[in-house]
Design goal:
Helix 1 (2-8) packs across helix 2. This protein has helices spanning 2-8, 13-20, 25-44. It has a domain at 23-67. 52% of the residues lie in helices and 0% in strands. It is built from 3 helices and no strands. The chain starts with a helix and ends in a 23-residue tail after the last helix. 1% of the residues are buried. The chain is mainly α.
Length: 67
């Protein structure tokens, strides 16, 4: 975060946090889709026996602590 603060020229880290720590719904959904694809691919590989992580239809983005 401090690197972003410096790059943006903010004198106060609070300013940077206000504008650069928020995630909009579109990016949240894209990240969830990428994670789902990776989990589905891992289930096809030999790695699947090393994890029990799954994406379920009941999972909701709003439950992940986003906006």
């Amino acid at each position: 975060m401090n690197v972003v603060k410096e790059l943006m020229g903010h004198s106060d880290i609070g300013t940077t946090q206000t504008y650069y720590t928020q995630v909009d719904a579109d990016h949240e959904n894209k990240a969830a889709m990428v994670i789902q694809i990776l989990l589905e691919q891992s289930n096809e590989d030999t790695v699947s026996d090393k994890t029990d992580a799954q994406v379920t239809p009941e999972a909701e983005i709003s439950n992940l602590g986003g906006n």
